[in-house]
Design brief:
Blueprint: H1 5-16, H2 39-45, H3 48-51, H4 55-71, H5 77-95, H6 108-120, H7 133-170, E1 174-179, E2 182-188, H8 189-208, H9 211-214, E3 216-217, H10 233-239, E4 244-245, H11 249-254, H12 257-283, E5 291-292, H13 311-334, H14 349-372, E6 374-375, H15 377-384, H16 391-400, H17 405-421, H18 431-437, H19 443-448, H20 451-457, H21 467-487
Parallel strand pairs: 3-4
Antiparallel strand pairs: 1-2, 5-6
């Protein structure tokens, strides 16, 4: 959908404002009501400002519905040809940005229906047989989300691949691992990056698992109770590549858990991406000096000419909050609704559209940030070789010598405290100082606990940071990515 549609709608609103006071504002819903809608109600009811994004999907759903009406004997073959020709013309105008949306027609469905009747005459009014806007909008949303999920899934896979490629580039480079943002134990840089790969892989699984519940075809449910007309909705399902029909019409028109599921996936994904972004921000500070980004992925200050700011990562971190809010918005909207359809459900679209647009924006940016990272490997190694980083290894050596771990922890902890009080690290302590804590510790043992030994000969437990386990992790990741590419999505 072209970006200028919102501007067109705003302009149309301005030029048509006076019509709001007229007895007939152009609305198609007549019959029961003898008075024109109050302007305040029209303003609150209009959704075309945002649901115009469903227009192409509304037309595609209408094409399938028209074919079903013809097969069911509800319209003639000649009527079908006229309707399809008209809808194809409208679809072309929508895709090319030439379609004019009238805000007085309230929503996307009425805009498409009015355009069709203007184009082909009274035959266009036959299209709405056996359906309601209630089941129509759910169909549109499912078609929209199915397409967008494909796009988002590919971008998420690209980000995971970028992390895997960057992990391989890092080789066996060490870095300090952290808990509580305090240096804890050395790890491989590749192992750290692969942690994000694993998080995002679970996000990919969550997205893929929405497939079964997204491919339920709601059309045929009518306003809430189905229809008395002889229809064959399976034909619509087959035409639009849905795998099953909605088993309950009340549920079909009033449930939005497929949207909640997507918004939940999106919020969790943004949590994980925000954590990655935070690491990038920290790494690029002068204090850490672990990495830099290309100039093209940074900004400078309008006042301080020396600045090189990682705004891309900060924006990813910042945009996470809006996806959390969108999930909470829809949860709150749904929580008190009785069955079946209520107009509150109009509020489901803006949170959905905003989250989709957010993911479409930040996922490609995140991939570029990962690919663009330039690591300061000497600085990472220096930080990883912190003299106190061997504390856990020293305690484990005592355990191998028969000391209970709690006692070993106490011994090494007292040594670390003594060293800190004297502005030293464990590596700086003398043989005498070490033996004062335990006759099982000496300089030879400390000198033996090198960074290389720590990373290469130890930490070989499943999921550990040794080169062997990290290489196995990356090999499995490549196999998985290749298989996903073969399988596709939906």
């Amino acid at each position: 959908m072209p970006d200028d549609q919102a501007a067109k709608i705003a302009k149309s609103k301005k030029t048509e404002k006076a019509k709001l006071e007229e007895p007939d504002s152009g609305a198609l819903l007549k019959g029961r009501l003898s008075e024109a809608p109050d302007p305040a109600l029209l303003k609150a009811s209009a959704s075309i400002d945002f649901d115009y994004k469903l227009a192409a999907y509304d037309v595609k759903g209408s094409m399938a519905h028209a074919k079903m009406l013809e097969k069911s004997g509800l319209i003639s073959h000649d009527d079908l040809n006229k309707i399809l020709a008209g809808l194809k013309t409208i679809l072309s105008e929508i895709l090319e940005g030439r379609f004019t949306f009238d805000p007085l027609l309230e929503d996307v469905h009425m805009n498409v229906e009015k355009a069709l009747t203007d184009l082909i005459g009274p035959v266009g009014a036959k299209l709405h047989a056996a359906r309601s806007r209630n089941d129509q909008v759910v169909l549109d949303e499912r078609l929209f989300l199915r397409e967008k999920s494909q796009i988002i899934g590919r971008e998420l896979r690209n980000l995971r691949e970028a992390l895997l490629i960057k992990s391989e580039e890092c080789g066996l480079a060490p870095m300090p691992g952290y808990t509580h943002l305090q240096r804890a134990q050395p790890v491989l840089l590749a192992h750290h990056l692969m942690a994000y790969y694993q998080m995002l892989s679970r996000d990919q699984q969550r997205l893929n698992q929405t497939k079964e519940r997204l491919l339920i075809m709601p059309l045929g449910s009518g306003a809430l109770a189905g229809t008395g007309l002889p229809i064959e909705p399976q034909g619509v399902a087959d035409d639009l590549e849905f795998t099953s029909l909605a088993p309950n019409s009340l549920d079909a028109v009033s449930s939005r858990d497929f949207l909640l599921e997507f918004l939940s996936f999106s919020a969790i994904l943004m949590v994980n991406m925000s954590r990655l972004a935070e690491d990038i921000v920290l790494w690029c500070t002068s204090e850490f000096n672990f990495a830099t980004l290309p100039d093209s992925l940074t900004t400078t200050s309008s006042m301080m000419p020396q600045k090189k700011n990682p705004d891309g990562a900060e924006l990813i971190r910042g945009k996470a909050g809006r996806t959390f809010g969108n999930l909470m918005t829809l949860l709150t909207t749904l929580k008190g609704l009785p069955l079946s359809y209520n107009r509150d459900l109009q509020e489901d679209k803006e949170p959905l559209f905003d989250t989709v647009e957010t993911l479409e924006t930040v996922l490609p940016l995140a991939s570029k940030l990962v690919c663009g990272l330039i690591f300061n490997l000497p600085r990472l190694r220096e930080a990883a070789n912190d003299g106190n980083a061997l504390a856990t290894d020293l305690a484990e050596r005592l355990v191998l010598k028969g000391v209970a771990f709690r006692k070993a922890h106490e011994i090494v902890g007292s040594l670390a405290a003594f060293a800190a009080e004297n502005g030293q690290s464990l590596r700086d302590l003398s043989d005498k100082q070490l033996k004062a804590a335990s006759n099982l510790i000496n300089r030879a043992l400390i000198d033996e606990l090198t960074l290389e030994l720590n990373l290469q000969a130890r930490r070989t437990s499943p999921g550990g940071t040794s080169p062997e386990t990290t290489r196995r992790q990356m090999a499995k990741a490549w196999d998985r990515l290749r298989q996903e590419k073969l399988d596709g999505w939906l």
